């Protein structure tokens, strides 16, 4: 057995789960799909005293679409969202296809991936791009944490040690919005070296109403390309303008270098992927997203 | 810390006391003597330990044995009766889709679910599926051919067995 010893509890109610986390004194971890946590236990990068397995909790496996929002409960597997996306959202389908591999997606949860906060992971960037929120339940009740205030550092979020993320909510792109997604990785399903996701909505006269661009693998957290978004909003997206927006978005990035890629490589690829995703998004105007 | 679980593996129910930190792969190999499930990296990267959980492929090293309580698991041993081969196994044999064989059980379990969802996959789709499995011998070419051949064999056989595995014997 590779993980260090831990206590295991599998609470039957949300209140029990929250109190198990609270009594863990910062040394309890939530086990949902386990596809990031169990590797960390096996490598002993994490040695929590207690695992709180939430798989038996009722009411967390819902996938609900209402008034332009998609709410995903903490036990919805990535594969379940992938199946929903196959007929509903080419954007979500394309993003999920790049999240690891089918055997991982069959167990891994959407909420777990978002909360694990790996900076090279696709879903946190999508949450940021679609201005999502994380629904957290703690001893003092429930609160909503917007994606742009959720990510603090690699594997570090605004979620308290005594809080359980019970759901995430994505704002679905409005009808007619265009989208783009691109990443560079060593193999399909690996963590991205760099990636970008973009959504552009348009006005009746063909200008950009709203631009949203987010990067992953380009810093310690997923990052919005705010400078690029501002270049595009209110203007017609010509090839020259899209290129200018991509440069502006990538200009503020300061990625780290590591054994997989240098910082300079990541910055240049980020600019290229920003241009590709923004161009794809403007080309897809009027189609399904 | 141990817990007692009940798990159905290849149609047989087992009750075992397991350490809470033991993985499903350890339960299968060390408690149930089903050593066909191979363990490579033990952190989800190599895919050798892939088994079916209620018909869907999962990494047996990334699931605690306690989490298999009440679940149905199919391993490579459960694909075909002892004296015969499943059509996918047969295709791997015919196309030389393995050399040392360490990665093979995991790939075959993934292929089983993959071909159920995509009965006539393109080579590109097969390669995308195989990205979740490391093979250090073959260079993958013959594995791709084996899966293509398996798809054809399954399509032409009237009683193909990549249906969801039987829930019970």
Could you characterize what this model shows?
The complex is a heterodimer of chains A (289) and B (169). Chain A has 289 residues and is α+β, with helices and mostly antiparallel strands. Chain A has helices spanning 14-23, 37-42, 78-88, 90-97, 102-105, 110-116, 122-129, 226-232, 239-251, 263-283, and strands spanning 7-9, 28-31, 50-53, 63-66, 69-73, 133-138, 141-146, 151-153, 156-157, 164-171, 178-184, 194-202, 208-216, 223-224. Chain A folds into 3 domains: 7-53, Uridine Diphospho-n-acetylenolpyruvylglucosamine Reductase, domain 2 (2-Layer Sandwich), CATH 3.30.43; 63-171, Uridine Diphospho-n-acetylenolpyruvylglucosamine Reductase, domain 3; 178-283, CO dehydrogenase flavoprotein, C-terminal domain (Enolase-like, domain 1, 2-Layer Sandwich), CATH 3.30.390. Chain A contains 10 helices and 14 strands. In chain A, helix 8 (226-232) packs antiparallel against helix 9. Chain A is globular, with a radius of gyration of 19 Å. With 169 residues, chain B is of the alpha+beta class. Chain B has 2 domains: 2-78, Beta-grasp domain (Ubiquitin-like (UB roll), Roll), CATH 3.10.20.30; 87-156, [2Fe-2S]-binding domain (DNA polymerase, domain 1, Orthogonal Bundle). Chain B is built from 5 helices and 5 strands. Chain B has helices at residues 24-31, 87-94, 104-117, 123-130, 141-156, and strands spanning 2-9, 12-19, 50-53, 56-59, 72-74. The mean pLDDT of chain B is 94.
